[in-house]
Amino acid sequence: MSTQTEINKNIVQYLQKVGYRDDKIINDLAHETSKLGSVSQMQIAKEQGQFLEIITKISNANSCLEIGRFTGMSTLFIARGLSEKGKIISIDNSDEFLSLAKKYWDMDNVSAKIESIIGDGIEVMQSMIDRQHSFDLIFIDADKKNYPNYYELSLNLIPSNGIIIIDNMLWHGDVANENKNDSQTNTIRDLNLKIQNDNRVEFSLLPLSDGLSFIRKK
Ligand SMILES: C[S@@+](CC[C@H](N)C(=O)[O-])C[C@H]1O[C@@H](n2cnc3c(N)ncnc32)[C@H](O)[C@@H]1O
């Protein structure tokens, strides 16, 4: 049986150089976001974005939901993966970086596929369940303490064969460190275990950047 290659600094540099195809709009968005200071760490990695785009395409997803927009990198990649008729609804509880996000969505000609909602993730998702909304693919990348809630709500918002993708499931490696027991680490560690034992889904925990949990509802 082959074993997991250890992802050391050399491999990370190699992945960042060869595991991603350079793209001017994405580079400019990353560059402008980096100028915001430490909050820029919230942005997904470009290699993750590329993965989101491909999964959106090959799953033929038509309607997508995202919780956690920030400056709109993940939204942009998912929108790119959608057909002309496809749509992504993006929720964030802050409008602080919406205009920056919109600037790049416009530049990439994907704005028509994006609906932005400013609101609390749980409240908006609950009201979508009440109105019997359904999505083909949901990307979760907001406040970690609510990850278990977003996971449960998402299962109510996708049909059988629907996809959930959750970012930061390796939490900078802390989930594997027994000495890390802060509440965010424990929440993510517990959610990984819950997903592993959840008979409602199939999954793959991918060590792409900070870890993506890739989930299919049975
Ligand atoms: C990690 S960032 C998202 C990064 C984004 N996916 C990207 O590609 O750049 C997390 C976002 O979740 C938002 N957020 C935090 N708590 C939230 C909540 N309760 N409901 C909705 N959004 C929330 C924050 O405002 C922040 O923009």
Tell me what you see in this structure.
There is one protein chain. This protein is α/β, with parallel strands linked by helices and 218 residues long. The protein has one domain (9-217): 3-Layer(aba) Sandwich (Rossmann fold), CATH 3.40.50.150. Helix content is 39%, strand content 17%. It is built from eight helices and seven strands; from the N terminus they run αααβαβαβαβαβαββ. The protein has helices spanning 9-18, 24-34, 46-58, 73-81, 98-107, 121-130, 147-155, 183-196; strands at residues 63-67, 87-92, 114-118, 137-140, 163-167, 201-206, 212-217. Strands 3-2-1-4-5-7-6 form a seven-stranded mixed sheet, with helices on both faces. Helix 3 runs parallel beside helix 4 and helix 6 packs parallel to helix 7. It is globular, with a radius of gyration of 17 Å. The two termini are 27 Å apart. 36% of the residues are buried. The mean pLDDT is 97. It binds S-adenosylmethionine. The site of S-adenosylmethionine has 20 residues, from helix 4 and strand 2.
For this structure, the CATH topology is Rossmann fold
Task: Please give the oligomerization state of what you see.
Answer: single chain
Total helices: the number is 8
What is the percentage of strand-forming residues?
A: 15-25%
Strand order of the largest sheet: 3-2-1-4-5-7-6
- Tally the structural domains: 1
- Quick one: how many beta strands? 7
Query: What would the principal axes of the Cα set say about the shape?
Result: globular
Structural class: alpha/beta
CATH architecture: 3-Layer(aba) Sandwich
What do the pLDDT scores average to? 97
Low-confidence stretches: none
How far apart are the termini?
27 Å
Rg, Cα atoms, Å: 17 Å
SSE arrangement, N to C: HHHEHEHEHEHEHEE
